[in-house]
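Let's practice the habit of predicting before peeking. Look at the sequence and jot down your guess about where helices and strands might fall. Then scroll down.
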Amino acid sequence: MSRPPRIPGFDYLGPHCYFATFCTFQRRATFGNARAARLTLMQFRRTARAEGFALLAYCLMPDHAHLLVQGTTATCDFRKFVKRAKQATGQFYAHRIGGPLWQEGFHERVLRRDTDLREVARYIVWNPVRAGLTSTPGEYPYLGSGLLSLDDLCA
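Done guessing? Here is the structure:
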């Protein structure tokens, strides 16, 4: 798979918000494994803190991950965050479970300043319901938000 192009002329630095999607290697249902999902979420949280990003919402679907993140300083580098997040989760997965975790590349949407982050977070956490995995987001174990409570997201 070739990498999706980034936005020409945009530096991906600073306090911007991003909606990112990473696909698992060969779109395998990797996150059907509870241990793999827990380890991956732990590494995402750790990397977000280390790189100065707020993890506003997340959802690990069986074969992909959605993240809503926001840089917290003028020097936050989204490309570096993604590289470190995929590297850390991939290495952790390879050592603890075995094999590659991610496909090459990722998809991102840079959100405009006037975007309603609550709506994007809701879209992310309702993903398992739209996919027919659960009837409510609260039933799905691998989603959450650092922005809103699950009750707020399910409303």
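How did you do? DSSP finds five helices and five strands in the chain.
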